Amino acid sequence: MDPLPRPSSAVTSVQDVVTSPLQARLALQSGRTSIWHYDLEHGTLLADGILEHLLGFPAGSVRSGSEWARLVHPDDLVRTQAQWLATTEGRAHRFDLEFRMLDQHGSVRWFHALGSTIRDTNRHPTALAGVVHEITDRKHAEEELHELSRYNRQLLDLSPDPVFVLDPAGTIIDVNPAAQALTHAERSSLIGADFGQRFADATRARQLWTDALARGTVRDTEIGLVADAKAQPIPLLCNATALAGEDGSPRGVLVVARDISARKAAEAERFMTEARVRETQKLESLGVLAGGIAHDFNNLLTGILGNASLAKLDISPDTPPYNCVEEIEKASLRAAELCRQMLAYSGKGRFVVQLLDLSELITEAGPLLELSSSKKAKLRFFLNKHLPLIQADVNQLRQVVINLVSNAAEAIGEKDGLIRITTGAMRATREYLHQTHLAPDLPEGVYVFVEVSDNGSGMPPDVLQRIFEPFYTTKFTGRGLGLSAVLGIIRGHNGAIKTESEPGKGSSFLVLFPAAEQTASLPIEARPPAPAARRILIVDDEDTVRSVLVRMLRSFGYETVTAVNGQEAVDLFHSGHDDFRAVLLDLTMPELDGAETFREIHRLRPTLPVVLMSGYSEHDAVSRFGAQGLAGFLQKPFQPDVLRARLTSVVPP
Q1: pLDDT tens-digit series, residues 584-611
Q2: Which of 31, 82, 313, 564 gives 20 to 30 Å between its CA and that of 555?
């Protein structure tokens, strides 16, 4: 490619050829602009000497086109020559190029060359004429601006807080990575989106940037961002600043947001803690009051009851006064029982403390618990056989469980329901104890628990907050001291109680007692209420089969729950007590047979492995189920190793 222009071209004074109005106007240019003219017919390049001056060379010292070409920066020479040839050969109608040249000292200078074709009266091109303007300062300014922009971009990208840049209409035109992470969206999907549509309160979000445009700055506005339609809005604290152009007109809004979810959670936790402290203080005050009243009333009752008993000795049983005195005596005994409950609530009842096993105590109290329950409520026991011992009063703890079962039965009422009694042990942390009643000062450690849960009517939060208050009751009748006495007994044993309830779904009362020191190192479950990490449901109407399966499974290390028919098994799932790893299901049973039971269990827990058991052949038994997804089959009778192998294949480790 020829240099710029051809080496044989001559360079003379521009004054010799400046004749047209265009050339006259170009000649008026001065300062940092040089005028040039190139004759297409003779290949003559004319210049005014200003370009040489700008490069630090004496006027007229650069004579040939090749000398000019050598001054073009090597990296720009090829494209400069290509543009020049395209214009001189008529393939381009205009020469317009920014390029670099080297001055006398080898420093880089930037120039912008503009040239147009000059035509004769017949419209034939005869020459090119134009200007070369130095743009070094502009290029340096652009480079600095680019560096500043890159620096600002880095600041934006490195900001830990989400940043949104909006145009005056509220459309997102830029975001940083933190904003992408917050919204779970790619930058491309955010750009062009309406800022307000991302928030739970779109009107409030739009008000944020419109106020910023009007006032310049808006601070500490709280808005909820909707990052996931299925999740709760993320609380953000936003600051917005208007962005102005050089003329002062608004160009957009910069919104800096901060996720305050952790702060909100801490505030909620602090509020709950303060509420629990107030509740504990209130219950303690009521306990002191109840204990004082009970003490004084017992003194009064001693006189009343004693005198009534003495009076009976002097009155004939066949006379009306005798009956009156006997009624006084009975009323006094009822009042004495009420005082004992008040003392129990205050934690100052009479305790005879001994080491005991909570599961054994509940097992022995089984008949009493059945009497405390209604005919409509079924009791289910899930008792851990290897509990640490606790220091407790047998009668008082029995009363706690009876009261809780009675309360659950009343919640179930006249409808069919299920009461579940579970025992276990756990290592309670401060965070866990903090969620219970009576536990602000209890230490971390091993606690034995009993949980009584039901699928009854449940309670709203306002009722749940008051259930331990003396004489508070949601029933039409009753003195409302049952749960108050429970709380007092637990307080007297340095325990705690955790309550959960929801209207229409039932209630749960979990009572914690500190394990005795000499037994606290015994194996315990990791968390209440001991969800069956290895719990198997056995559904069979034959007592002998259930009994032998229980012994087999326990020898394998599994926990077991039994149901005598399909309906009872389904009831367990409907009541929410469905924490099983697998089900062993008999085929032929009354009420609900194996196939009907399986369909209901599969509907409630589609992924739960169900192994069918039957005295029929596998083909005949399984054919009743079609392609419904049984996990396996056991042909009766079977030996323990066959049962173990089948469970190992269907129950994840």
Answers
A1: 998 888 888 888 899 888 888 888 899 9
A2: 564
Alpha helix positions (H), 216-260: none
Question: Residue 358 in contact with residue 528, Cβ under 8 Å?
Answer: no
Q: What is the CATH number of domain 351-530?
A: 3.30.565.10
CA distances from residue 195 to 257, 382, 524 in whole angstroms, order as listed: 13, 54, 53
pLDDT tier at 133 (50, 70, 90 boundaries)? Answer: very high
C-alpha span between 389 and 351 (Å, rounded): 17
Neighbour order of strands in the sheet with 108-119: 44-47, 33-39, 125-134, 108-119, 94-102
Instruction: Work out the pLDDT band at 8, boundaries 50, 70, 90.
Output: very low
**Residue 81 near residue 73, CB atoms below 8 Å:** no
Burial of residue 415 (CB within 10 Å: 0-12, 13-18, 19+) is: exposed
**Interior angle at CA 560, CA 568 and CA 583, nearest 5:** 60
Q: Tell me, what DSSP letter sits at residue 509?
A: E
Give yes or no for residue 309 having a pLDDT over 90: no
> Taking a C-beta distance cutoff of 8 angstroms, is the pair 458, 505 a contact?
yes
Q: Where are the domains of the chain?
A: 14-140, 159-259, 270-346, 351-530, 531-653
Measured CA to CA, the distance from residue 213 to residue 250 in angstroms comes to 7
Spatial contact of 195 and 179, defined as CB atoms under 8 Å apart:
no
Amino acid (1-letter code) at residue 210: T
Give Cβ neighbours of residue 306 (< 8 Å, ≥ 6 apart): none
Closest CA to 379 of 362, 355, 357, 392: 362
Tokens of 102: 């080297």
How far apart, in whole angstroms, are the C-alpha atoms of residue 449 and residue 510? 7
Write out pLDDT tens, residues 410-452: 888 888 889 999 999 998 888 888 888 876 678 889 999 999 9
Q: How far apart are the first and last CA of the chain?
A: 78
CA-nearest of 524, 548, 555, 553 to 537 is 553
- Residues near 598 by beta carbon (within 8 Å), at least 6 away in sequence: 585, 610, 612, 625, 628, 630
Structurally, at CATH architecture level, domain 531-653 sits in: 3-Layer(aba) Sandwich (3.40)
What is the CATH topology of the domain spanning 159-259? Beta-Lactamase (3.30.450)
H helix and E strand count, the chain = 21, 22
Q: What is the mean pLDDT of the chain?
A: 79
Question: Could you confirm whether domain 14-140 is CATH 3.30.450.20?
Answer: yes
Contact predicate 400/372, CB 8 Å? no
Q: How far apart are CA 639 and CA 556, in angstroms?
A: 13
Q: Comparing C-alpha atoms, which of 523, 586, 506 is closest to residue 557?
A: 523
Say what the pLDDT of residue 281 is.
64
Please check the confidence at residue 329 and state whether its pLDDT lies above 50: yes
DSSP annotation of 194 reads B
**DSSP three-state, residue 289:** helix
Q: Do domains 14-140 and 531-653 have the same CATH topology?
A: no
Q: If you ran DSSP here, which 8-state letter would residue 182 be given?
A: H
The residue whose two tokens read 């909570």 is 358
The pLDDT, as a whole number, for residue 73 is: 94
Helix (H, G, I), strand (E, B) or coil at 497: strand
Mean pLDDT across the stretch 369-379? 81
Bridge partners (DSSP) of residue 128 are 38, 117
- Residues 6 or more apart from 215 whose CB is under 8 A from it? 242
Spatial contact of 345 and 470, defined as CB atoms under 8 Å apart: yes
Per-residue confidence band for 583, with pLDDT thresholds at 50, 70 and 90: very high
> Is 182's pLDDT higher than 80?
yes
Residue 326: Cβ-neighbour burial (10 angstroms; 0-12, 13-18, 19+): middle
